[in-house]
Amino acid sequence: MANQTNSGNERVDLAYRRRKNAEEMRHQMIAFVLMILLTLIAFAAVGYEEFSHWFVVPFILLLAAVQVAFQLYYFMHMSHKGHEFPTMFIYGGVAVMLLLVWAFTTVIWW
Amino acid sequence: MSTIARKKGVGAVLWDYLTTVDHKKIAHLYLISGGFFFLLGGLEALFIRIQLAKPNNDFLVGGLYNEVLTMHGTTMIFLAAMPLIFAFMNAVVPLQIGARDVAFPFLNALGFWMFFFGGLFLNCSWFLGGAPDAGWTSYASLSLDSKAHHGIDFYTLGLQISGFGTLMGGINFLVTIINMRAPGMTFMRMPMFTWATFVTSALILFAFPPLTVGLIFMMMDRLFGGNFFNPAAGGNTIIWEHLFWVFGHPEVYILVLPAFGIFSEIFATFSRKRLFGYSSMVFATVLIAFLGFMVWAHHMFTVGMGPIANAIFAVATMTIAVPTGVKIFNWLFTMWGGSIKFTTPMHYAVAFIPSFVMGGVTGVMLAAAAADYQYHDSYFVVAHFHYVIVGGVVFALLAGTHYWWPKMFGRMLNETLGKMTFWLFFIGFHLTFFIQHFLGLTGMPRRVFTYLPNQGWETGNFVSTVGAFFMAAATIILLINIVVTTAKGEKVPGDAWGDGRTLEWAIASPPPVYNFAQTPLVRGLDAFWLEKMEGKKELTPAEPLGDIHMPNSSFLPFVIAFGLFVAAFGFTYHNDAGWGLPVGILGLLITLGSMFLRSVIDDHGFHIHKEEVLELEKKEANA
Ligand code: HEM
Ligand SMILES: [Cu+2]
């Protein structure tokens, strides 16, 4: 069974693996820089007096969602093979919770 | 059974069970404690029926009636049905997928002890002022006003602890089924009970967190000065109802899907025919689980959500009847043309179909939102859910007990006594609950401790009480059967019924600690049947015989759960007594301390050597 999912297979050609790892590293670096940038933007948005709360709150929530995606896909390797089940269950959970929030906002609070 | 068969003292056996991480022994633990709570809940049911047997009765009055009623529902759902289902999952699923244990044996033991101490804590309320009295649903508008004693706090903390245990169990089975299937056991070759366990575990994973959140809010409101559900301080009591039912409706499917799984195994085995429409069965199970998350508000039609919300939830609810119907037809077609053997489990399976269908039909009636204004909170609802839960879940648990008893304990339950249990239970069940439909339709409200004469309810209630005693008699015969069997039942071979289809029947009864000496190769659905049809007596091995790695026993799961038990006492009383807070903290320290120990102590398990395995297998073959 494919339960060793995010470690490389030694039998695969070394040069190929080198290249692959380098590429991976580059992605991680880019994601890392982007995440720092997003964090700075979030701080700036909150700090800047001119923006109304109605803009800032949804905006930083959006940034947060992007951060989560970066975290999952670049740092926790969710895009790699063998993560189908975790992916399925994470999105399943997200769907259930969104349904709940949607129902609460429409049925209870309005 | 231990690696080396030898007589052990009572103390040694007890210690063995307190520290075990073996899924087969954990199954025994779940079976015994779930069975005990089933008897307790049954006793409470008898008390309820005695009180209602005649008008103006005074056997259990007012507050005490509320406590007994609440504890009956809570015990039956959380402490009897759930653990009994877990008993069979533990006993059977690793065997059905050809595994040596579950993915996380330590966590498995921890899950059991969490459930156990949660249930124990809940029942301590009887001796400490009073049990919870706001119904098993514990609506906030009632429970926040229940201030005479700590009953509700026992409910919140007890269910919180046992709920964690359930969540652990669910995650464990998900990982086990995803990762530990034997070579060749693709998803579409998994036995139906394993499929049901898989889907149920996913339901647990998604449904228990809302309950956890609700219980935390409730705990805050009752013990720590919170106001989540208190309208006077800006809270909202309806939020509890939503959180509870977002959990509660999936919960009824958490109970019934494994029941469907058990019956699927039984129908195929005793019709001696492959399950009809296997892939549609899988699809229907997944679909039921999916839809099960979108219907919770059908329990709240009368709350005042408005016509649009009511209509949406009504339609969503009715659609569940479709996949359920698919399953019913598949079971009928499995029997069609089969060479049927009417064993005790098969009796339950055949009786389950009409009984459960009746519950489904009243369910669709209830789902019609406008009509539900009439049915809601009447005995009609009581009749509905007992038809699905007793006619579905309890029948399945009894059937499963007879079906897998030989596999779990190596001895066959007596068939004559088994059939007596069945008939008494079957008659008693319909006697008790059929008439309640009409009591409800003529206006008898649920959860009332008495009623006045001359409203046309006397006969119905009396009949209902008589039926309850039939079920009690059936249960007593089952207990006698168990005692007789344990004392001198006939020993059985691995394929105890002679018609086993799935992997669990290919190994000894009870199985050796390591289950499979060699991991089997699975070549199709009903893997064992397939081999038998080719004239083989054993499975094709997928690996050479070798040393088998096993996990060590541990006392830590018990201690971790015990710490939470202590902590729950402390926090329950922290507003009334000075010792509350220190005891609460002490309990948490016990738990966290033993978790720390678990993390730092290296535990590599041990090996059963090849020679030992060979010797054991030889002994089995000669026995
Ligand atoms: C076709 C399938 C089903 C439908 C359409 C259905 C529909 C409903 C509806 C509308 C109610 C709310 C009635 C009211 O309070 O006024 C209800 C209550 C209930 N149902 Fe079902 N149901 C179905 C199957 C099941 C199954 C399979 C189970 C359990 C195994 C179950 C267990 C319950 C329970 C426990 C309640 C009562 C909860 C309470 O108020 O204490 N139902 N059902
Ligand atoms: Cu429901």
TrEMBL record, chain A:
Name of the protein in its database record: Cytochrome c oxidase subunit 4B
GO biological process, one term: electron transport coupled proton transport
Cellular component GO terms, alphabetical: cytochrome o ubiquinol oxidase complex; plasma membrane
Lineage: Bacteria, Bacillati, Bacillota, Bacilli, Bacillales
Membrane topology classification: Multi-pass membrane protein
Subcellular location: Cell membrane
Keywords of the record: Cell membrane, Membrane, Transmembrane, Transmembrane helix
Entry's Gene Ontology molecular function annotations: cytochrome bo3 ubiquinol oxidase activity; proton transmembrane transporter activity
Automatic annotation (TrEMBL), chain B:
Gene Ontology terms, MF aspect: cytochrome-c oxidase activity; heme binding; metal ion binding
Keywords for this protein: Cell membrane, Copper, Electron transport, Heme, Iron, Membrane, Metal-binding, Respiratory chain, Translocase, Transmembrane, Transmembrane helix, Transport
PANTHER family (UniProt xref): CYTOCHROME C OXIDASE SUBUNIT 1
Membrane topology qualifier: Multi-pass membrane protein
Entry keyword Heme: yes
InterPro entries registered for this protein in UniProt: Cyt_c_oxase-like_su1_dom, Cyt_c_oxase-like_su1_sf, Cyt_C_Oxase_1, Cyt_c_Oxase_su1_BS, Cyt_c_oxidase_su1_bac
Top-level EC class as recorded in UniProt: translocase
Source domain of life: Bacteria
Protein known as: Cytochrome c oxidase subunit 1
One cellular component term from this protein's GO annotations in UniProt: plasma membrane
Catalysed reactions, as listed in the record: 4 Fe(II)-[cytochrome c] + O2 + 8 H(+)(in) = 4 Fe(III)-[cytochrome c] + 2 H2O + 4 H(+)(out)
Originating species: Geobacillus thermocatenulatus
Family that this chain belongs to: Belongs to the heme-copper respiratory oxidase family.
Subcellular compartments: Cell membrane
Protein function: Cytochrome c oxidase is the component of the respiratory chain that catalyzes the reduction of oxygen to water. Subunits 1-3 form the functional core of the enzyme complex. CO I is the catalytic subunit of the enzyme. Electrons originating in cytochrome c are transferred via the copper A center of subunit 2 and heme A of subunit 1 to the bimetallic center formed by heme A3 and copper B.
Entry EC number(s): 7.1.1.9
Signal peptide: none
Cofactor(s) needed by this chain: Cu(2+); heme
Membrane-crossing residue ranges in chain numbering: 29-50, 70-93, 105-128, 154-180, 192-220, 252-268, 275-296, 308-336, 348-371, 383-405, 417-439, 459-484, 555-573, 579-601
Taxonomic lineage of the native organism: Bacteria, Bacillati, Bacillota, Bacilli, Bacillales
Pathway: Energy metabolism; oxidative phosphorylation
GO BP, sorted A to Z: electron transport coupled proton transport; oxidative phosphorylation; respiratory electron transport chain
